[in-house]
Amino acid sequence: MPPLTQRSNADAVARFCLVILLALACALPAAAQNNDEEPGAEPEQYAAIVLPDNPTRQQTQAYIAELVKLNDRLGELGGFDYSKRIEFLATYQKFDAVPDQQIDLLISNLRQWYVKPEIANSIARRDKEVIKPIIIAGLDKHPANIIAIRHFGWYDDAKEPIMRKLEKTDTMKGLANDDNWLHAFAYAAEPKHYAKFKQLFVTSFRRSQRVGLLESMPGYDILDTIQACIVATEKNLASGDPQGDYTSQIYIELERLWVIAARAGDVDALGELIDVLNNRKPEVVLSYFRVGDFDMQRDNVTQFIEFKGSNKEIAQWFKANRDKLVFDAFKNRFVVGEAF
Amino acid sequence: MDGYLKLLACALLLLLLCTPAVAEGESSNEATEATQAQPEAANEPAPVEAEKQPEPTPRDRLTQLELPDNPTREQCAAFIDAIRAIVPGNPRRESELVTKKLSTIPVKHIALLTQIVANNRALISDQNMYFCAIAAIQTYEPESYRKIAVDGLPENPGLILLIVQHGWYQSAKDPIRAKLEVTDPFTKDLPMIWFQAFVEVAEKQHYEQLHQMALNGRNLRRKLYLLDTLQGYDFAKTVNACWDNVKQIRKDKSFRYDDYVVMSYAIRNGNIDVLATVIDKLTKPFQGIANMNYYTRGDTAPTPEFLIRRHLDFRGTNQEIVDWFNTNRDSLVFDNATKRFQLLEDF
Description:
The complex is a heterodimer of chains A (340) and B (347). Helix content of chain A is 64%, strand content 2%. Chain A has 340 residues and is mainly alpha-helical. Chain A has a two-stranded antiparallel sheet with strand order 1-2. The termini of chain A are far apart. Helix content of chain B is 61%, strand content 2%. Chain B has helices at residues 2-42, 46-52, 58-64, 73-86, 95-102, 110-119, 127-137, 142-152, 160-166, 173-182, 192-201, 207-215, 220-228, 235-249, 257-268, 272-282, 304-311, 318-328, and strands at 332-335, 340-343. In chain B, strands 1-2 form a two-stranded antiparallel sheet. Chain B is elongated. The relative contact order of chain B is 0.04. The chains are: A mainly alpha (340), B mainly alpha (347). The interface between A and B is large, with 72 and 69 residues.
């Protein structure tokens, strides 16, 4: 009979799950015990990895890869004891053996999780005046060097290669180390590069959170760029291409961009924010209470107006006064009539 | 490797131990199959009898449940308890029917529904009633409960949800202000939407109370975010006090993310002490803080690098910035319009 067979199958599955759980429960203490023995073997394991004199790039690459591999394995066995790993690495200082001429190999391995702090420290221990020209000269060939340039603040010295990269690049999408490169472009750009920078900024990731970069560029037209970003984001939303943002976050991104545009004096953006406030789903608001947040969408609007009222009253007030609204830079608010 | 071997051995051992049990179970099932086959054939009418008097399903019991005419508050509360007894709060079941039943509660007792939502601060308990209550609240006409929500606020704090949803802060300003005045600034449990309501209706005489609440330290980022744009409020005083707190707590200068948020607010209000601390951080070898860019009005990571770039005109390598700042510190003035520190002669 089918029902009975099903039941016996379910029983077997349940028993199997139980077996797995029990086995895990028995084996976990065993594995933990095992880990305590590991560090004792470490010095020999480290000593076995050596870099020959005057190494070629391939040899250095293999050397670093071996260290990374060892640390990955030890890290996994050691139950992700991150601080212990850093401690061991700091004792042996194995990365100091890499010659200055091949420092780009170290920089490009900075993304490796376990060895990252030690590589950073190894770079920081070197003589800055020696590695600076090497890093800057290698920037064209090894774009990852931009990490070190950002870290030490050598934008001014590396201005030429950075500008070359700016002219060559058409989109930030898919560019490795895009965050670092965008910072470098912003720091080194002069007014004649601003049009190109705008083009790149619009294609970058999480634009709303990088608007501070625009603020730090003297004489930059923030509103123009943000409006271009809004158009691009709306286009992404319509085409279903979230451009690196999660689809659910793209609405938040759009709201943030409107807030930034409103802060720069864009009345239309304020209108959009008031629309959001009045057309949202009620369960969104009620969930704020649940997760301990506040009503961000209300605050997005009230920070820009002096009028006090309910959400609906604000919408009516905005409709009636829209043409008369002027942005008062002193108060950071839209006021009816003449600006201060 | 030994660990894995032991694991495998344990698994095998347990499998061996359990296999007879499984086999036994299967055989016993077969046995019951065989034994049941005969009586079933002989006793045909038994299942028909069972169909005649079925157990009432939750759906039937819910459908039969009705409120009396003009119910009192107690009757409504008992009604909600009865629903919860039939359909447990978690997992979600019969949501549509429960919502329909909940929305038969008269609008004057809407506080009972908001109470369900307000009490549900944990993320998994009472899921069913939580979502059904939210759906039920939406079936009422907003204007029909506006007066009820405002008048009932002192007795039923959960009604603040309705005030927030429609932005009726100005109508409810008296009860909200009354609550603001009696709230202990060092309370451990102040939902952020209550703090937002306080900020919405605060007058000059309440500013000291808000200041104390910000110093309390819980949800600091969100409190500062809200206080930042309160018109006429001395925000600089609050952030400077918060910065003093941070300095006391982090004497070793190992700042956390929240501390950088306080710093970015303080530096934007002209606190040169923060600028000095941030510049001091520049020469430290490894900065753990990067790419954490939430919740500040600056909308960019408040890393030392960025803060300096945003608020200082001087450009150079990290070491040059440190040297320049140490020589020029006393002649720096904060320009509130551009939010930048400038040399006295340029100003």
